[in-house]
Amino acid sequence: LTTAFYSSPSVLSPTDIMGDVVQMHFTTPDYVIFALLLVASTCIGLFYALSGGRQRTTQEFLLADRSMSCLPVSLSLLATFQSAVAILGAPSEIYTYGTQYWFLGVSYFLGLLIPAHVFIPVFYRLRLTSAYEYLELRFNKTVRIMGTVTFIFQMVIYMGVVLYAPALALNAVTGFDLWGAVLAMGLVCTLYTTLGGLKAVIWTDVFQTIVMFAGQLAVIIVGAHQAGGMGEVWRKAMNGSRIASLDLNPDPTERHTFWTLGVGGVFLMLALYGVNQAQVQRYLSSRTEREAVMSCYVVFPCQQVVLCLGCLMGLVMYARYGEESPLDKGYVKTNDQMVLYFVMDVFRDLPGLPGLFVACLFSGALSTISSAFNSLATVTMEDLIKPYCPAMTEAKATLLSKGLALAYGLVCLTMAYVASLMGSVLQAAFSIFGMVGGPLLGLFCLGMFFPWANSTGAIVGLVAGLAMAFWIGIGNFVSRMAVPTPLLPIINATTMPLRGNMTTAVMTTLITSITAKPKPTGVQALYNLSYLWYSAHNSTTVVIVGLIVSLLTGPMKEKDLTPGTVYPVLGNLLFFLPERYREKLCCVTPLSHKERATPQPSCRLAHTVQETAL
User: Fold this and answer.
1) Whose CA is closest to 286, among 80, 68, 575, 567?
2) Nearest-CA neighbor of 608 among 246, 170, 198, 289?
3) What pLDDT does 592 receive?
């Protein structure tokens, strides 16, 4: 589990190596297109700040008055999923390894079907604002606070890096001013998120999604034309062994196989689309539960298109450079810079199109960061402030929510500066984001699927899951650093959105050394576990430890459960057992046909919505 970026922003100029290669720089049309992206995003925020209810209530600011339709919600889900690092990483992955990564699309089916029919009905019918409110309803306030603090820790570290990293790559290849890009993006994102609330975030995501599609399509069309057409691109990829076949190797230490991508990827998708606050908040902003469910169905084909675009960009790159990559020639330092070099190379005689791709790249960054700001403001307000200030007026709560969004925007800029000082430790920042999502998924699954799990089991399970995640992640990092220099693998920027975004996840990979290495055993094999299995492994740890501790400390009784907090998956799976046995297993509670008799004073929810599961 590693990162995509090195500490030095420098790159060898092509003119220093090959005299006939033109130095790559942005032109005036490129800067104009980039500026238009920032202006348009700001205008959307101002529009929603001055229209409608003018963001005067927390419901409007944090949940868009629960008035959003299916299409903008689905495109916003997609934009949060498609980060700038993913735009740079997927083509690089395909160029280096081939199309095995494409099988990740198999995981999207269950990765969206389960949230649509399990997580969304539970969250939506409870009428939550923060996903972590669920943890108090199901367990207690301590579990809620632990989940909230874990999420804040995850996002604060991540959001600065996701802003700084693509700016660093852009600066290295084009000379684009590094801190000018970071400040412009950070301030614009903070402005429209603070002024326009979630509604502005969702509609800017829609606009930025269109820009992302346009930028990637432009690169593919022009690049394929210059390579002789898509038929020629495919032929060169076939000849270069970049079209991968189905790999059914069950070894979990193998980086990419059908099982790691198709099965391990499901858990990554669940961590992102099932329980991540940035995505849950979008579901809850929908007008109806049906529209929230439909947004998952709409985003499925869109995700497949995004994956295809990234893979096709990688194949077009291979058709252009073959085995002689800009990285091997020394034109760039890392693989993420290679994608930008390719774009500048393809568009060198087409002014304005490099600016379009940069707008595409930073649209990915904007959508991810704005989702982080809004979701962080939401959980801080709903989980850490409101429960302790019940007398706070709506006007003060709304103003404080806006202040929190602004504060997190400034924290993001600070973290971007910290990221610039971290050097190679940047990989630890990306790793932390990836390590935390799995245990949070396990915590929600423990509460939602196992009625006898109690609060003690939830706390111990979460701590055990986080400990396991950091042990494996740090052990992997240390073991990689301990490899002798000749065997060091090349750091690769291969990513896909991960948990939370957000938007909401970054998956990073390693290119294995050409030198053959013995198969790891024991603890070393655990350190070499494919990054795609991390979420499954860590979430399973939480569930197993949580269940064991719950059984040892006294399992919860059905009468003690808050109605609507348990999805009756065991009751459905064990339908063949007599009801008296299923009652002993505490697995017959319906999802939404009971109301809570006594609302908890610290929670706003009093009743569950009487709807039929779709």
Assistant:
1) 68
2) 289
3) 52
